[in-house]
Fold Outer membrane protein beta-barrel domain-containing protein.
Amino acid sequence: MNTSILGRGALTFLLLAASALAFAQSPTYSYIEGGAGFHDFESFDNWDREGYWAGFSVQLGDSFYVDGRAQRYSRDLFALVPTTPDDPDSEFVRRRVNSTRLEFVNVNLGYRLPIGRRTDLNIELGVDDRSARFRDEQDYRASVGVRSRLWGRFEGRAMLSYRDKERFRSGDYLLSVEGSYHFSSLFAATLQLETDEFDTNIARAGLRLMF
């Protein structure tokens, strides 16, 4: 009886270990993803714009990859306005008086260098296109960071970027971190956070389909 219990316990342990090893792979570089996003100015406690985003990554051989992301955030501004402007006794109603919209597109060419069994060094060069209601900007970006299949089903990434402005006369530093939980070899949930010198912050949550 005890031998049977021990045998079943050993078999269960081996199955769990095999499952963990199956997910203990190198980081993923070929996928599409998307979800909901939140945009904030100057603090992490006032997410004043909501939106959506979509991204992709494609592995090119053993050492290179291309990735990109498109994001769109908007905010409607409301005010109390009289139903009859010339009547001082008119009732007030809440109406939308303005709308702001932000759109970001980023495309990178990346190089991956394995620095461990499950960890890669990532180096990227990319282009950023940012547009608001009255202003459009196109900048260049250089990034360096690490991507790792930290443990089993969990994958993490951290990148430090420099985004050029005014033809290399000035620029911003960006820090981005993300974590992904792999439900299987095809599907994962991802949570991502990006800050532009803590002046502009973006949080993203979504799903990832790997191929």
The beta strands are 31-41, 49-60, 64-82, 92-114, 119-131, 136-151, 154-165, 170-182, 187-196, 200-210. Helices lie at 2-23. The chain has a mean pLDDT of 82. The domain at 2-210 is CATH 2.40.160 (Porin).
